[in-house]
């Protein structure tokens, strides 16, 4: 087994959003072992750069040599290279080892503070960009490199070609983060074939884009380290960065950091949710006779949402496709837990989570007075809403009834209750919904109530 290894040659952002911390998160999110040659320490936060201490160029070079010689480097990227001597040292080491290099020609932080000495601009063009396999300027950086203003996609296309032909990197990506439009479009130009390609993604409305360029270029290097073709590595990087921006973090008072770990966390949490659902489904199957008595006409469902930060819509809630039905008197899940298959129970959950982010699971069952009574005796918090009170404007809006009802029920007891019920309306069956932190907790609450009813009926 080969462990892919990538190196970042870049600066430290003390705020943790850009530079080597963004790069390392990105490498590891993509399953690549990450190493660092530090070029500078910046005292920085989401608002700006307060101070910069450059690392001695010989130390930068020795860091690269040390890791390349012993651990090995399958691909590398450069970020902040602030001075000509640092650039010369980096170029020497890169040429010595011959690994593919992605160059993010960092000039300014998102705050506008410079990260390169003015006199090093020429060295960047003469010494660093020519040894790049891929170079990834944003619009302002492309303007500096091409020598004209880059404000439109057409400018970006012209700039990509000029940079490729004059400075000789293999592939130029002029990024569209700073351009306008409802898509964020990057222009990719291949010098050898003269071919253009585009990377497109919906533009996400957020100011938390600190570190996007760092993470994007690190993702390309990670893809190359994994042995992907340059184009496949670039497409993967676009997917990763779009996810990292969608789930960027509202931290600090300026531009908050992108979240490359979202790439991993989403996958891990999705797997966790399915595992927990399966545990709860086993409990349902073990008690299929008891629960079978309380499956309503519309059938039951059990849902579990991703943690609140990742639970944005119905697709982020897992439930049972085809619901939990009554078959030969027994409760029976019709299929494996799957994301995005329930709107009813998911709607209860997503509304409850707005009031208590810990409450991520719910199950609906048939209404029965005895359930309410037994739940009260067990000390559960119970609330209800009246579907007949639903305002006409809510009724008219598709999918608005459950959120409205759930909010009514939460507000009337001042917290997310254990149980919400309603007594129905014309054509709407009454129902009970059990809520909890996990599906195991929800099914445990339900079983406690149903067992109590059973015990009482024996006397
Ligand atoms: N709001 C956004 N929505 C979607 N994609 C975006 C957005 N902003 C940037 N991107 C994408 O992120 C990637 C990085 O582009 P960007 O132009 O922001 O880099 P940058 O300015 O070098 O970043 P930084 O200086 O913060 O490191 C590109 O693929 C770009 O299209
Ligand atoms: C250290 C460092 N590198 C790169 C950038 C560009 O985002 C930054 N803000 N800080």
TrEMBL record:
<keyword id="KW-0808">Transferase</keyword>
<keyword id="KW-0067">ATP-binding</keyword>
<keyword id="KW-0418">Kinase</keyword>
<dbReference type="InterPro" id="IPR036409">
    <property type="entry name" value="Aldolase_II/adducin_N_sf"/>
</dbReference>
<dbReference type="GO" id="GO:0009228">
    <property type="term" value="P:thiamine biosynthetic process"/>
</dbReference>
<dbReference type="Pfam" id="PF10120">
    <property type="entry name" value="ThiN"/>
</dbReference>
<comment type="function">
    <text>Catalyzes the phosphorylation of hydroxymethylpyrimidine phosphate (HMP-P) to HMP-PP, and of HMP to HMP-P.</text>
</comment>
<comment type="pathway">
    <text>Cofactor biosynthesis; thiamine diphosphate biosynthesis; thiamine phosphate from 4-amino-2-methyl-5-diphosphomethylpyrimidine and 4-methyl-5-(2-phosphoethyl)-thiazole: step 1/1.</text>
</comment>
<dbReference type="InterPro" id="IPR013749">
    <property type="entry name" value="PM/HMP-P_kinase-1"/>
</dbReference>
<dbReference type="InterPro" id="IPR004399">
    <property type="entry name" value="HMP/HMP-P_kinase_dom"/>
</dbReference>
<dbReference type="GO" id="GO:0008902">
    <property type="term" value="F:hydroxymethylpyrimidine kinase activity"/>
</dbReference>
<dbReference type="GO" id="GO:0004789">
    <property type="term" value="F:thiamine-phosphate diphosphorylase activity"/>
</dbReference>
<dbReference type="GO" id="GO:0008972">
    <property type="term" value="F:phosphomethylpyrimidine kinase activity"/>
</dbReference>
<dbReference type="GO" id="GO:0005829">
    <property type="term" value="C:cytosol"/>
</dbReference>
<keyword id="KW-0511">Multifunctional enzyme</keyword>
<comment type="similarity">
    <text>In the N-terminal section; belongs to the ThiD family.</text>
</comment>
<feature type="domain" description="Pyridoxamine kinase/Phosphomethylpyrimidine kinase">
    <location>
        <begin position="13"/>
        <end position="259"/>
    </location>
</feature>
<comment type="function">
    <text>Condenses 4-methyl-5-(beta-hydroxyethyl)thiazole monophosphate (THZ-P) and 4-amino-5-hydroxymethyl pyrimidine pyrophosphate (HMP-PP) to form thiamine monophosphate (TMP).</text>
</comment>
<comment type="pathway">
    <text>Cofactor biosynthesis; thiamine diphosphate biosynthesis; 4-amino-2-methyl-5-diphosphomethylpyrimidine from 5-amino-1-(5-phospho-D-ribosyl)imidazole.</text>
</comment>
<dbReference type="GO" id="GO:0005524">
    <property type="term" value="F:ATP binding"/>
</dbReference>
<dbReference type="InterPro" id="IPR019293">
    <property type="entry name" value="ThiN"/>
</dbReference>
<keyword id="KW-0547">Nucleotide-binding</keyword>
<feature type="domain" description="Thiamine-phosphate synthase ThiN">
    <location>
        <begin position="276"/>
        <end position="447"/>
    </location>
</feature>
<dbReference type="Pfam" id="PF08543">
    <property type="entry name" value="Phos_pyr_kin"/>
</dbReference>
<comment type="similarity">
    <text>In the C-terminal section; belongs to the ThiN family.</text>
</comment>
<protein>
    <recommendedName>
        <fullName>Bifunctional thiamine biosynthesis protein ThiDN</fullName>
        <ecNumber>2.5.1.3</ecNumber>
        <ecNumber>2.7.1.49</ecNumber>
        <ecNumber>2.7.4.7</ecNumber>
    </recommendedName>
</protein>
<dbReference type="InterPro" id="IPR029056">
    <property type="entry name" value="Ribokinase-like"/>
</dbReference>
<keyword id="KW-0784">Thiamine biosynthesis</keyword>
